[in-house]
Design brief:
With 499 residues, the protein is of the alpha/beta class. It has helices at residues 10-24, 28-32, 37-51, 62-72, 90-99, 113-116, 119-133, 153-162, 180-186, 204-213, 230-236, 277-280, 284-293, 311-317, 322-325, 341-348, 394-401, 426-429, 448-461, 479-491; strands at 79-82, 108-111, 140-143, 170-172, 194-196, 219-221, 223-224, 227-228, 247-250, 270-276, 301-307, 328-334, 355-359, 385-389, 409-419, 437-444, 467-469, 474-475, 497-498. The longest helix is centred in the first third of the chain and has 15 residues, at 10-24.
Length: 499
């Protein structure tokens, strides 16, 4: 049975009342001093919901901006995440730049790509970053796509020198412009455990210096083009040196067998491999390097991104990867060719695959096979998350969803694919007890009314379902029927968001 919404708490009702009162008050700051500390964060969340109602082309009221910043950023704040779209508003960043000066205990600072990707916001974020770097308490900094924020080597050097007084553990500044002085300052951050310098111009020698000088590193990524410069740097070290690196990103299948580096990387636990067939093609050498990953005992998890591969080739490849296959936990397939249950079957047998993403595939029908092979009886036994974008056939939908009982999140975007509503009965015959998010976009073949009725049953039979998304993407379904489904959820007080 679906979970029902809890009744509003007295604290929740009070927070909404404080928001309305503060927005009308000329003494907002004084009023907020009366709000208990453990309620200010909740007030910030409530204000953020109000801010989300404004479009990008609508001017944000300054009172709303100030209330959001003053309720979200306080002297005791330990974490600030500039990830939501609200931080793309320049007035919010300007207010934050002033407000953050009161933060004395901040430990974590993050800015996502949607916030850092515009040059008009770069200076605001840079000034915030400089203040954060000057705090002794800071432990983690992550600036996604930092090439605009740290576009000058002098700024990068200043940030790294400011960090000297801290005990920072994690620093992720991909794209930052560095010089020799920056590297020297970086090498003095002896407590670093995680470092990302992707797309920052560095030499293999400088990476060797980083590996040798920052001995506590467990995660180092220095991607330049199609190469992670960590791998040649590790290869150049004496075999007697033992590194603590436990995570390795390979921008392409390695040219050498990683077993050769096993003595230098005894702690290697997770490998993330990117294979763009259009760039590097197929070869026996690649097949052998993939197989060698599974022969390293310390590696427990392998995540793989493959693009533009012919999935008929995978049918021949997978038997060669028996040791590697059992360690694959995540797989992303982009613009792959010849997608069909028969070509996907070797992937469906991966015993520990938890996340599968298929983007823009080329789907084929049964007529491409002289004889259809027998498929596995238990496909995707451990799959928890699936993301699918592109053309979808009925047989493919059946293969992906009929027996995937462990699913927690489903996202299907197939706006031009026509599917019969009865296919969704799979989620009724065997309710998905762990399913939390169900986002689908497709054209219903026949009865939109039947489809909505089936969705209602799925909601009722999924005890952990919290989100039913993209309902406006249901083709051939009357908006009236969608509103009826929302009404049923409201009347039964079910804790499910429909949007």
């Amino acid at each position: 049975m679906a979970r029902r919404k809890q009744s509003p708490t007295l604290r929740g009702l009070c927070i909404k009342a404080v928001e309305k009162l503060a927005l009308r008050s000329a003494e907002m700051t004084e009023l907020l001093k009366l709000v208990p500390a453990n309620c200010l964060d909740l007030l910030g969340v409530e204000v953020q919901r109000s801010m989300a109602t404004f479009s990008r082309n609508t001017s944000m009221p300054s009172s709303l901006t100030n209330l959001f910043i003053e309720s979200s950023v306080n002297s005791w704040s330990k974490e600030i995440n500039l990830t939501e779209d609200v931080y793309t508003d320049i007035s919010v960043l300007t207010s934050l730049q002033l407000r953050i000066r009161i933060c004395e205990k901040l430990e974590v600072f993050r800015a996502s790509r949607n916030v850092t990707s515009q040059s008009d916001r770069a200076n605001n974020i840079l000034q915030i970053l400089k203040h954060v770097s000057n705090l002794q308490s800071i432990r983690s900094i992550h600036i996604e796509d930092a090439h605009l924020v740290l576009s000058d080597s002098e700024d990068s050097l200043e940030v790294l020198e400011l960090l000297q007084k801290s005990s920072i553990r994690e620093l992720r500044i991909p794209g930052a412009v560095l010089n020799d002085q920056s590297i020297e300052a970086l090498l003095r951050l002896k407590q670093l455990r995680c470092l990302n310098l992707d797309n920052s111009k560095t030499s293999t020698l400088q990476v060797v210096q980083i590996l040798s000088g920052l001995t506590r590193l467990v995660d180092l990524s220095v991607i330049w083009g199609r190469t992670n410069r960590v791998l040649p740097a590790v290869s150049s070290l004496p075999s007697s040196i033992k590194l603590n690196i436990n995570t390795l990103l390979l921008r392409q299948p390695p040219g050498l067998q990683l077993e050769e580096l096993q003595s230098r990387l005894p702690a290697l636990h997770h490998v993330h491999l990117v294979w763009n067939v259009h760039e590097v093609g197929y070869s026996t050498k690649i097949d052998e390097s993939l197989a060698s990953l599974g022969n390293i005992p310390s590696i427990k998890q392998i995540s793989v991104e493959i693009s533009t591969i012919n999935l008929l080739y995978v049918i021949q490849l997978m038997p060669k990867l028996s040791s590697t296959a059992i360690k694959i936990t995540s797989l992303e397939l982009t613009e792959v060719e010849f997608l069909h249950p028969a070509s996907l079957d070797p992937i469906a047998t991966l015993p520990n695959l938890k996340s599968l993403s298929i983007i823009n595939p080329g789907v084929i029908g049964d007529d491409m096979f002289f004889e259809l092979p027998e498929l596995t009886d238990n496909p995707f036994p451990s799959l928890q998350t699936i993301v699918y974008e592109g053309e979808m056939s009925s047989v493919l939908f059946t293969f992906l969803f009929e027996k995937t009982y462990q699913l927690e999140s489903i996202q299907v975007r197939s706006p031009t694919s026509v599917l019969e509503p009865e296919l969704f009965n799979y989620f009724i015959v065997e309710p998905r007890k762990k399913l939390e998010s169900f986002k689908i976009e497709l054209v219903v073949e026949s009865s939109g009314e039947l489809f909505i009725s089936i969705l209602e049953q799925i909601i009722l039979l999924s005890p952990n379902l919290r989100t039913l998304g993209n309902v406006n993407g249901f083709g051939n379904v009357s908006p009236v029927k969608i509103e009826e489904l929302k009404r049923i959820v409201r009347e039964q007080n079910l804790d499910v968001e429909i949007y």
